[in-house]
Structure formats: C-alpha cells, structure tokens
C-alpha cells in the first residue's frame, strides 16, 4: 500500500515537473508528455523477461522537433520507472523472501527432545499456519550419548495454488526459503 502511494507520487510529481519545464508553446503538451512517459514505460514480456519495447520504439521512430529534450526526458523517466517496476522490485522481493533466517536455539538430547514443540517454534517464527504446512525429509544424526550432531527437515507450505519449501538445518535453525514454487 505504501509502495503504491510512493509510486503514484513519484510518477505524478515527475510528470508535473516535466510539464512545467516546457520552453515552447505546444498544443496538448501535457498529453504528449504523458504519452512519451507511457511509451518509455511500455513493456513487452518474452519468455518471462520484460523488455523495454516502448523505449526502443521511441529511439527508432520518434524525432520530436518542439520541446524535444523534455519529451526525451519523459521517455527516459518512463524507462527508469520500467526498470524499477519490472527488474529491481521483483529481484528485491525475491532476495527478501529467500533470505536465510537464523534462530539461535540450543537443542536438547536426541532422547528427550520434543519434535512437535520444535516444529511449532519454527512455524511461529516463519508466521505460518500449521494447517497449511507439511513436514518432510526429516533427518537427524546424534552421538551415542544423545548429542545432536546434524538435524534437518523441510517444511512445505501450500498457499493458494503453489508450494513453498523451507529447509531447516543444524541446531542453529538456519531456515532458507529455497524459492521452489510449484504451481498446481
């Protein structure tokens, strides 16, 4: 919500700034600036990759004569917004969602540990609903005295039509969203 408000303020503010910079009088100048902005921000997706087709069209076919520098700035402003929305934001969201979360937690002996409690601790830390989470690939190695040397499991969360996998490893609980999402 806040990101949408910032985005709208940025775009409207940038367009108003460009409209006020006009040097020569021109009919329907605000609409032309908005058109050049839309041209700059126009995207074409090919195999999941967004390409700045509108800006390429601007470079190849548009040669304005009146207020040319301001129209070029509007197209470049659209390209900058395209880069932020189509490339930077998805990359940032992916990096945030797939970050490793470390929980400092000392494990008890393998003979006395309550695995249901451990699972509940991890699901609470990840803020997952237990009804949508499945435990998978549980593995534990321990010494004869019961000291846990290696512990790992996978939590599979079903949200809408996709599955999200979380790998939990070691006694420090390094939780990684593996980024694997299977659409149903």
Task: Tell me the strand order in the biggest sheet.
Answer: 3-7-6-5-4
Outline: rod-shaped
Q: Which parts are unreliable, with pLDDT below 50 for 5 consecutive residues or more?
A: 180-184
Structural class by helix and strand composition: alpha+beta
Helix content: 40-55%
Q: What's the N-to-C terminus distance?
A: 28 Å
β-sheet strand percentage: 25-35%
- What composes the largest sheet? 5 strands, antiparallel
Number of helices: 5
Q: What is the number of beta strands?
A: 7
Alpha carbon gyration radius: 26 Å
User: Looking at the chains present, what oligomeric state does this protein adopt?
Assistant: single chain
* Topology as a string of helices (H) and strands (E): HHEEHHEHEEEE
User: What's the average pLDDT?
Assistant: 82
Please tell me about this protein's structure:
The chain has 184 residues and is α+β, with helices and mostly antiparallel strands. 45% of the residues lie in helices and 27% in strands. The protein is built from five helices and seven strands, in the order H-H-E-E-H-H-E-H-E-E-E-E. Strands 3-7-6-5-4 form a five-stranded antiparallel beta sheet, with no helix packed on it. A two-stranded antiparallel sheet has the order 1-2. Strand 4 and strand 5 (148-159) form a beta hairpin. The protein starts with a helix and ends with a strand. Residues 180-184 have low confidence and may be disordered.
């Amino acid at each position: 919500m806040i990101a949408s408000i910032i985005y709208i303020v940025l775009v409207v503010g940038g367009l108003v700034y460009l409209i006020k910079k006009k040097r020569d009088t021109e009919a329907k100048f605000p609409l032309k600036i908005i058109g050049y902005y839309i041209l700059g921000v126009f995207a074409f997706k090919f195999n999941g990759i967004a390409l700045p087709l509108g800006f390429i069209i601007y470079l190849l076919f548009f040669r304005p004569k009146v207020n040319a520098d301001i129209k070029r700035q509007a197209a470049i402003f659209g390209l900058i917004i395209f880069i932020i929305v189509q490339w930077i934001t998805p990359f940032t969201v992916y990096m945030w969602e797939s970050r490793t979360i470390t929980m400092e937690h000392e494990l008890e002996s393998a003979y006395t540990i309550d695995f249901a409690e451990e699972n509940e601790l991890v699901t609470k830390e990840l803020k997952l609903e237990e009804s949508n989470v499945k435990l998978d690939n549980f593995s534990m190695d321990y010494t004869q005295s019961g000291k846990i040397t290696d512990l790992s499991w996978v939590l599979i969360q079903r949200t809408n039509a996709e599955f999200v996998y979380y790998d939990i490893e070691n006694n420090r609980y390094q939780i990684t969203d593996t980024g694997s999402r299977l659409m149903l």
